[in-house]
UniProtKB/TrEMBL annotation:
Membrane topology: Multi-pass membrane protein
Sulfatase N-terminal domain span: 278-568
SUPFAM superfamilies reported for this sequence: Alkaline phosphatase-like
Subcellular location(s) per record: Cell membrane
InterPro entries attached to this UniProt entry: Alkaline_phosphatase_core_sf, OpgB/LTA_synthase_biosynth, Sulfatase_N
Keywords: Cell membrane, Membrane, Transmembrane, Transmembrane helix
Protein name: Cation tolerance protein CutA
Transmembrane segments: 39-59, 79-97, 102-119, 153-177, 189-206
PANTHER family, per the entry: LIPOTEICHOIC ACID SYNTHASE, PHOSPHOGLYCEROL TRANSFERASE I
Broad class of where this protein is predominantly found: membrane
Source taxon at top rank: Bacteria
UniProt source species: Pararhizobium polonicum
Entry GO CC: plasma membrane
Matches recorded under Gene3D superfamilies: Alkaline Phosphatase, subunit A (3.40.720.10)
Amino acid sequence: MKLETALASFETAVHAATASKAYGPQIGFGARQAKALSIAGRLILSLLLSITLIFLVEWIARNSALEATQFLLNPARPAWTTIGVFFLLFLALDAAFARENYSIILIAPLALIPAFVSRQKQIFLSDPLYPTDFLFGRQIMELMPVLVRDRPWTAAGIVVGLIVAVFALVWLGRFAWRRFPVLARRQRIARLAVALPLLGAFVHIMDYNNFSWVRDRLQVIPIMWDQTENYRHNGFAMAFALNLPMANVTAPAGYMANAIDNIPTRPMPAGTSHRGKPDVIVLMSESFWDPTRLPNVKLSPDPMPTIREMQSGNVFSPEFGGMTANVEFEALTGFSNAFLPYGSIPYQQYIRNPIPSLATFFRGEGYVARAVHPFQKWFWNRSAVYKAFGFEQFKSEENMPPMQKRGIFASDESLTEEIIRQADDLRDPFFFFTVTLQGHGPYEANRYARNTIKVEGNLPESDRAALATYAQGIKEADDSLKKLMDWANERDRETIIVLFGDHLPPLNTVYPNTGFMNSLTASRKGSLEQMKAQHETPLVVWSNKTGPVKDIGTISPAFLSYQILKQGGFEHPYYTGFLGNIFDKYPVIDRYMLIDTDGKDTPAWGRKKTIPSLIRDYRFLQHDMMFGKRYGTDRFFQSHADLFAGAM
């Protein structure tokens, strides 16, 4: 065979060029120098293979040789970090199989095929390939008929190419095993001793939930809120790896059809009706928190008098300083981040198919369901997610009138005026879910022309300026809520307004310098008092007919749907029945802590041998609707089933 002869000749040439016994005498070097050159030659060959493979992966994934070249040549992007990781993988696998460069036959298909699939997915679905896509085999299968119909020759080429590739890989594997140079025991140990610790250290710094100085220096920047940019900046292989931990979603032990059928629910009275159809406006206020909780400083006047008077309780945020989408996920679905892998972002990784939400519930009741956010629709993948949640419209920066700014962000006042304008244009009852933007950090000193909140206390000037900016934003959010309530009080139809903060603000050194907490960020684990202090944000549930609801207490965002529907007089098998049963026992469900209605906390509940049956059923039902067979759809989410008939 000509190909086999050519490969044999190539391997013989490489072996001859790097063999120390043959090389040394030819040029007069000693045995040590010749051996060093031999090792260097082999390492250079592995490095060249790594460079070539990464170039091909990026060329395929980007569909552009030029962009792939720019990726490799740009020092502000982690191309050479990726090459280094693959180089170490080559060394480790070569050592494991005891064959020089045998690893390229194993790794190349695992890198090139996903890159090709990612490119096809981008063509048809606009998104790159995520590890979590393999949790949704149906989505991948649905892509194939589209490809066959739109590009039949491409589809045929893929099939033929896969068949040829399988046979070629089997043949190459057998050929390489027989003909590639065998690594000596000492060489294998040396390669493993170098490669494994470095690979382990690299894996350790890849947790994007924690800042890593080394990762930052290597230019690996996790851009989890914008996966398109994440893949563009970090490259396909690195971005795919950053998303890998979130693909580890397994069914909880005991999950099956009978487990869902056996979940008890609160009985729904026959012919249950509610008092008319109130309009509902939910405001998730960006970084809204009570800054008067900071010790050793005084703010005057009170920046949030309206909210303090109307406050119903607190939301126990699962996040701190960011990750708004995770809080939003809980608020809209009634599901919990506590049952998902640590560090996961459902909006980015798991929402691939229609998911039950407040939007589908209200649409089932004849409402207009609309999402409103004065930023671009791609952020946090909201455009696709809101569609999956059943919203009829998403009013974003692209399709709303220009708004006044506070710094670079749309003001709460301008957003409130837009909400009022949209509401006045509707005759049908409506459900608005609105995410504000003004409160977003960082809190630069000159965001506002005039700060009206005075900050007193022994603080560095930079902290004082940041706190004054933040407090002014809280005042304007409070003023905007009052404006919305004043408008609602003039309406005949009942109007329910719900406001809550998504998480504490990223005030950085303000926290330790005031003594509020020891570090710049909140603890993930701690005492009940510590966790409540660092994760509670204000909650207001108010009606223009009945005023504020009082004494709700501290609740997880997942129970906001229960509170909203309860206030509106609605009954629902999941949002008021099932969640109501859980809320009566556990109003806070955090990844690391359960808090019951008596205020008693159960830390590390997820690691115990048994968990409460209510929490077990909650996890069953969430897994069923997000990843499972959806056994509970007809029983718990009939309006969702009707709305998305044929799409699930």
